Amino acid sequence: MAATSTAQPAFTLWLTGLPSSGKNTLAEHVAARIRARGLAVEVIDSGVLRRGPLGATLGFSRDERDTNVRRHALAARLLARNGVVAVVSAVSPYRSTRDEIRRELGAFVEVHISTPKETCIAWDTTGNWERALKGEIQGFTGVDDPYEAPLKPELRIDLSDLPTDQAVRLITDQLELLGYLPDQTQERAAEDGDLVGERLRVLGYSE
Predict the structure, then answer these.
(1) 172-192 tens-digit pLDDT
(2) For 7, which DSSP code?
(3) Does residue 2 form part of some domain?
(4) Is 170 inside a domain boundary?
(5) Does the global pTM surpass 0.85?
(6) CATH number where 33 lies
């Protein structure tokens, strides 16, 4: 069960990017880190919602994609109203829709997962990229439907050359900078010091 706290305001962390760019895995790791800070947090996974009652009836036209994304925003708004941080993982391909959601939600942090298309194809475990490239799937984002990257996201992260733990650190650092997470600089320095000490002991430089 997520811990609760009223010390910090609830907010929405929105991860957007191409299919199979690493958004879902990163969202889960970031949520765990936020939860460890004592905040209530929930992950809104677009793929999960697509398979559930809220999204199962939707197709992939622009209007239907927008409807799906706006349902994510509605869920995030309800969570924030109850003091719960929402971590949204969604392709959400249209810039204007994301910008509208930013204005509606207010406390909104956008992270563009900019993993290159070639890496997304290599990471895909569903076979959807391959089928789309063969023309077997129509309206697939990144193939025959556009992905409009954010112009000014709070962060842009390419997971093809950045380990997950470092990406999580970048996000939590940015959330601290924006005032959404308590600053844990001293605690982190102590953790880093312990890590260095352990490495020195392994190398035989200290007892």
Answers:
(1) 999 999 999 987 754 455 455
(2) S
(3) no
(4) yes
(5) no
(6) 3.40.50.300
